[in-house]
Design brief:
By secondary structure, the protein is an alpha/beta fold. It has 23 helices and 18 strands. Helix 11 crosses helix 16. The radius of gyration is 39 Å and the shape is elongated.
Length: 761
């Protein structure tokens, strides 16, 4: 529910932002004039001020030698102040037909326009072509602009000018209908006598020439104070105003000029120079006060615009962050992971003396009947000199233990313990193991014949305490599992090369990992404090100063989830467990020595590339969708394809390092898109669970098995039950507080007890 509400709110705000962020285009976009039969001739041949209020249909002009400078598309934080400065220097006023969304973004600047003695008019809220809108939307464009002005300046305006309009002789039947609608709402529609065409930036002299009235006639002249570079406009005004004043012209606002005409008309009627039937209308107020209700509505509107703009700014910023993290990760991988791969493939590379010490393999198993046979056979049949396999049945309710016992393999032991979780099963197996080199394996994982031999060779270096193997997806028949195959190669294996080079490996995978018993003893065994016991114990080993390395040649084939639901559950548990482990080991950030090094290198890397980057990555797709619909198509595609190309390049490098065929990469674009959304939701839910103190239970995945299971022989008459174990995990009660083993569980894991006589045969 929380995710749905957040997503709904996010989409709603983006829609609002898209609505208010309409792109400004030239006000004189070429359009054909339609049928004009319904437009009165008095309108088509009349003045630039059209009055259809109260059912009348009249036009007006300014008195002779009167100029009203009008400015469209503002306010603009760069050019509007410069225009205002020119007007102040020349003691002139103008009429600014403002766009409501710009007023909402720059309310203080709009207030400055009014404070300087200028007046405002409506230029719609989003600079929309009114001919293409439904009537309700046209009314909204005007009313929203009006309330934005009311909040910003405290005034009301009676003037409106529509984007892409020109002169009265261009009013056709469609536009006439819109003009009359505006009149019914109480607005005078203002077009122009002259167009400076400054929006084309033809040059200062040409702008002045275009704005020059003929003879001593009046003019309402169109300029722009926004919508692009207006430096030519500012320079032209600085020359034009003094020039026209020298010719005897006065500069007024539209309303001031209209009132001057009303005064002249009234004087003519009184003196008898005009027919007595001439109607005299009252003068219009300049910048009348806004209604209080409009100011309240304007407040809500302005805050909505700010919220929408802010959110898009945040998303754009996050896009930059994702880009920087992605590029940074790619650069590090190419530098460090590439060096790791080249080092391993040198003919003279070796860990030390060949390792032939006996190995104990621990297989914790809970309801693994589909894969346990293949797993145990692959382990017991390895080509290593001495292998002991200990299958710990963790209270399975299926035939897992019976199947493993039925194999009757001489180097395989099966023990049963009450269900106590994976950590308890691992600790039990380690306690019962005969040897000091411990390999841990998941019950659904199949080893290659030489995997154990390859896996333990790094122990030839006495500083190595644990080894991470190369996990491969064994079931690649479905789209979801193929996606995971790509992820394992690009994400997990490539990252392990990087982490080993930095000596801050965060995870030895549960599917294939090897440990020194001594190292495990130092950290108190496998902790049950997190759901990511493999990450938890690995971090503890790093903090103790043990090297944790990656052996790419030790391969294990695991069964990946085959449905999105199972994949989500698995990644939810992984992510939540990783966050638990990071929080548990947070004090490493302030430690000294190996622990501090891991805390200041490993934890930040994991936080940036394991949590932050996947959580933020969906903004790439958000920006793509938003950009394709509302921004420039070309620039959006270039940015998105650039990110994809970087991912493809990284994938090719990773597949080359792992010597995997690249044919699976044709699914990469869809995989990246789907995984971004999946991991975003997983991490959000994991973080929410962690912050709210929720507890996540272990989700058992449905297994089909990598290899067809044979029919086992009847189980033996007696069942082997693990004896009581009190020596594992180790406890060191006499150590000072600062020397207590890192990673030790608060309560020791449950150890099995000898069954009561009632349970024996």
């Amino acid at each position: 529910m929380l995710g749905t509400l957040v997503l709904g709110f996010f989409v709603a705000v983006l829609v609002v932002q898209a609505y208010i962020n309409a792109e400004f285009t030239a006000d004189h976009k070429e359009t054909e004039v339609g049928d004009q039969d319904g437009v009165p001739l008095s309108i088509r041949g009349g003045g630039p001020i059209v009055n259809t209020t109260g059912g009348q249909e009249t036009t007006s002009r300014l008195p002779d030698r009167t100029i009203a400078l009008t400015f469209d598309d503002g306010p603009d934080p760069i050019w509007t102040p410069k225009v205002l400065q020119v007007l102040r220097e020349n003691d002139a006023h103008g009429t600014f037909f403002v766009v409501g969304s710009q007023v909402a973004r720059h309310p203080a600047l709009t207030k400055d326009i009014v404070a300087d003695g200028n007046e405002l008019g409506l230029h719609t809220f989003t600079h929309a072509n009114m001919q293409l809108l439904a009537p309700w939307r046209r009314r909204l464009e005007l009313s929203q602009n009006q309330v934005a002005i009311a909040k910003a300046t405290g005034v009301h305006t009676n003037l409106a000018r529509f984007p892409y309009s020109s002169k009265t002789d261009a009013i056709d039947d469609t536009n006439w209908k819109i003009v009359k609608e505006a009149g019914q709402a109480g607005y005078l529609v203002v077009v122009n006598d002259l167009d400076s065409e400054d929006w084309q930036r033809p040059g200062i002299d040409q702008i002045i020439h275009n704005a020059m009235p003929a003879g001593e006639s009046s003019a309402i002249i169109l300029f722009h104070d926004a919508g692009g570079d207006r430096s030519q406009t500012v320079a032209a005004l600085a020359k034009f105003i003094p020039l026209m004043k020298a010719r005897g012209y006065r500069f007024t606002t539209v309303t001031e000029g209209l009132n001057l005409g009303i005064e002249e008309q009234s004087a003519a009627v009184k003196s008898g120079r005009a027919p007595e039937s001439t109607s005299v209308i009252p003068a219009l107020p300049l910048n009348p006060a806004a209604a209080p209700g409009d100011e309240w509505r304007g407040t809500a509107l302005i805050w909505t615009v700010r919220l929408a703009d802010g959110l898009v700014t945040v998303v754009a910023g996050l896009f930059v962050v994702v880009g920087v993290l992605t590029i940074g990760r790619t650069a590090l991988l190419l530098l460090l992971a590439g060096r790791h791969a080249r080092q391993r493939r040198r003919p003279d590379w070796r860990w030390g003396e060949p390792v032939t010490d006996p190995v104990s393999v621990i297989v914790p198993a809970y309801n693994e009947k589909e894969g346990i046979e293949a797993a145990v056979r692959s382990l017991a049949g390895g080509d290593y000199p001495e292998i002991e396999v200990v299958v710990v049945d963790d209270g399975s309710t299926d035939d897992t233990a019976e199947i493993a016992e039925g194999l009757r393999l001489p180097n395989v032991r099966v023990v049963r313990v009450p269900n106590g979780g994976k950590s308890n099963a691992l600790n039990t197996g380690i306690a019962l193991a005969k040897h000091d080199l411990i390999v841990t394996v998941d019950g659904d994982t199949v080893f290659e014949r030489d995997s154990i031999q390859k896996l333990v060779q790094p122990f030839g270096d006495p500083a190595v305490g644990a080894v991470a193997g190369n996990v491969k997806v064994g079931n690649r028949g479905t789209l979801v599992s193929t996606w995971q195959h790509i992820e394992y190669v690009i994400g997990f294996n490539l990252d392990r090369r990087l982490y080993e080079t930095l000596n801050c490996m965060p995870t030895v995978p549960g599917a294939i990992g090897a440990f020194r018993r001594e190292a495990l003893a130092q950290v108190g065994g496998i902790s049950d404090e997190t759901l990511a016991e493999d990450t938890d114990v690995t971090m503890a080993l790093c903090r103790q100063g043990w090297r944790v390395v990656y052996e790419e040649h030790a391969k294990a084939w695991t069964e990946a989830p085959t449905t999105l639901e199972q994949l989500y559950r698995q990644r939810y548990r992984w992510s939540y467990g990783t966050m638990q482990a990071m929080w548990k080991h947070r004090r490493a950030l302030f430690d000294k020595g190996p622990s501090g090094r891991f805390g200041r290198v490993g934890l930040p890397f994991l936080a940036l590339f394991g949590v932050a980057l996947p959580m933020l990555a969906p903004v790439v797709d958000i920006m793509l969708v938003y950009g394709l619909v509302f921004w420039e198509l070309k620039e959006t595609l270039i940015a998105w394809l650039g990110m994809l190309a970087l991912q493809v390049f990284t994938a090719l490098v990773a597949f080359r390092f792992d010597r995997e065929p690249v044919k699976a990469l044709w699914r990469l674009p869809l995989q990246q898109f789907a995984y971004r959304q999946l991991m975003y939701l997983v991490l959000i839910q994991s973080a929410t669970t962690a912050l709210t103190g929720g507890r996540l239970r272990w989700h058992k995945l449905n297994r089909a098995g990598l290899v067809t299971r044979s029919t086992p022989p009847p189980p033996p008459v007696s069942t082997t039950v693990a004896p009581a174990v009190d020596s594992w995990p180790p406890t060191v009660p006499d150590l000072p507080r600062q020397q207590q083993p890192i990673g030790r569980a608060v309560a020791p894991p449950t150890t099995p007890a000898v069954p009561s006589p009632a349970h024996r045969e």
